[in-house]
Amino acid sequence: MSQTTLHPMLNIAIKAARAAGNIINRASMDLESLKVNTKSPNDFVTEVDQAAEAAIIDTILAAYPGHGILAEESGRERGAKHSDFVWIIDPLDGTTNFIHGFPVYCVSIALAFRGKVEQAVVYDPTRNDLFMASKGRGAYLNDKRLRVSRRTRLADSLVGTGFPFRKGDNFQRYLKMFETVMPHVAGLRRPGAAALDLCYVAAGMYDGFFETGLQPWDIAAGSLIVTEAGGLIGNFTGEADYLHQREVLAGSPRIYAQLVKLLSPYSRVISADDEDLPANRKAGSTPAADSSAEAGDTVVAALAAASTPPAVDAPKPARKAIRLRKKPAEEDRAAPAAGEDAPF
């Protein structure tokens, strides 16, 4: 995609992402001097996250002062509170990788208009790789048009995922999921930056990706890049409310449909007869990692409600579904939008 043909708002997102990337790259040269704080066990934030986020927001608001902001570290402290335009920002996805010098992390910026993501940028500063998409205009890696893979057999597929890492996460549920998926695929990978994982699906490097417990800023930009590359994204049952359910599944259409069949029993919407499938999946009880009723749910639910469900040719579960009640998980980190209405 030529720079001259980019949407003006996408151009601003690129400018903001590169500014953040410069901050991250400079800091990566002296990791030992980094100040690292812990938001919750195994959930870190550095002064680099905060400086990169400030640079992104400054760049965006200089161009669009009337737009809203939803950012991982500062929430909705800055920007307009009731704009139809909301920028969804993760300044450093993969902070744990970054502070250990493991070069898999990125900047993720999405712009939603009335609940639908229309512009997206994911920037990998270690490789100078810029993934971008505008709704209806395709997805690109630098100047190369992206398409999801053409593989049709799950047995030939490479699938990305994320492991549980916070205290209270349901490790038994993940073990059951791995046990179900691994025999059916060529390999599973877990680099540790969900925004990049989704871009790898769009680029055909992965054939599919699944994870639970993600926040809007982890997924928003990558979701548009996947769909603009011809892929599908939804929850484990193939529906479009993945942001609300905190579970995401993405892939090329054929592989996506096959993964839905494998992962639907592990969705937060389960059938009455599946009580004994993953551990702790009794009707009326919810695994700790998936039951977090965080304040950010209002934001997530609004975005999900405005989304168009992906077309999936996999059958829906035949048995009657029961939606589990949520209960707050004490150890989960609170989303930054607490106490505020959904911006979109």
Automatic annotation (TrEMBL):
Residues 306-315 have a biased composition (Low complexity). Its EC number is 3.1.3.25. CDD domains: IMPase. This is Inositol-1-monophosphatase. Coiled coil: none annotated. The keyword Protease does not apply. Residues 317-326 have a biased composition (Basic residues). Gene3D superfamilies: 3.40.190.80, Fructose-1,6-Bisphosphatase, subunit A, domain 1. Transmembrane segments: none annotated.
